[in-house]
Each structure stands twice: as C-alpha cells, then as structure tokens.
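Reviewer has doubts. Consider these tokens.
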Amino acid sequence: MSAETDMRRIEVVDESIAEMFRTKTPGERMDMGFRAAAFAKMMIESNVRQFNPDWDDRRVRAEVLTRMNT
C-alpha cells in the first residue's frame, strides 16, 4: 500500500460473505451489484424527497446523481 493510503478507510469482508460471493457466477455477482445500486438510489431519492418536498422531479434526480457520484 502506498504511503497515502488511509488505513481507517480499509474495510475487511467477513469470510462467510466472501465464501458466499465465491459460490456466485460473475453474472450473479454483477446482478447483485446492480440491485444494490438500484436500492441505494431508491433510498437516496426517498430521503431527498422527504427533506425537500417542494423540489420537482428534475431537481430530485440531479441531487440523487450528485449524492451517488460523491
């Protein structure tokens, strides 16, 4: 690891989770990733709408994209 690596940001995958992923095909792992991203987007959108009820759909979508790309 480089000298700039922040060790506080390193996450270790639990061995049981790693083993579950090893049993999946690449397509299944991709599907899980896409579903996780879709769920995250849905949760972020819900949060944005809850705290900004006066925003239109365009502004909500823009904020969701900003938060997902941060």
